[in-house]
Design brief:
2 domains; 153 residues; elongated; alpha+beta; 4-stranded antiparallel beta sheet; Arc Repressor Mutant, subunit A; Alpha-Beta Plaits
């Protein structure tokens, strides 16, 4: 972040709110020219600071309104077991987030489902059936107090 100046920070902040802005609109919001904004955005993309622009969905409108936080413990901690589990996770569309954890559990997952039965099917037939998985503990979100994709700068 040492090579990022104030204008870059303003660009990053604004684009986290609305990635569809034209370069002219972006320039107006950050106090720069459209050409300069275009060059800066391309430079931030090339540096890997800005990833692809995406559209966020309303989970309830696509029948994925149940959020489950799932702790997972593996049977073993060999490189093969962790690699197999992480490949499994990367190929499961219902697993939205996965973190390797310190402490009592090996991984923390955020899983989306249509309803409790849908999650139970995933848990019993898919997750717990994986050869690397020893056990799991599930926690159902009752409501969402905060959701953001915006990083503080």
């Amino acid at each position: 972040m040492s090579s990022i100046d104030d204008i870059d920070r303003r660009i990053l902040d604004v684009l986290q709110d609305d990635a569809q802005l034209s370069h002219a609109e972006l320039a107006e919001r950050v106090g720069s020219s459209a050409a300069s904004c275009w060059r800066r955005v391309r430079s931030l993309e090339a540096a890997g600071i800005l990833g692809p622009a995406v559209r966020l969905l309303d989970a309830s409108k696509v029948n994925r309104s149940v959020n489950v936080i799932c702790n997972v413990r593996l049977r073993g901690h060999t490189r093969e077991a962790t690699t197999a589990f992480e490949e499994f996770v990367s190929n499961r569309p219902e697993i939205m987030d996965c973190y390797s954890m310190s402490g009592d559990w090996d991984y923390l997952l955020r899983v989306v489902a249509a309803d409790v039965s849908d999650y139970e099917r995933f848990l019993m037939r898919i997750l717990l059936a994986h050869p690397s998985v020893a056990t799991a503990s599930s926690h159902f979100a009752l409501s969402q107090t905060k959701r953001t994709t915006k990083l503080p700068l």
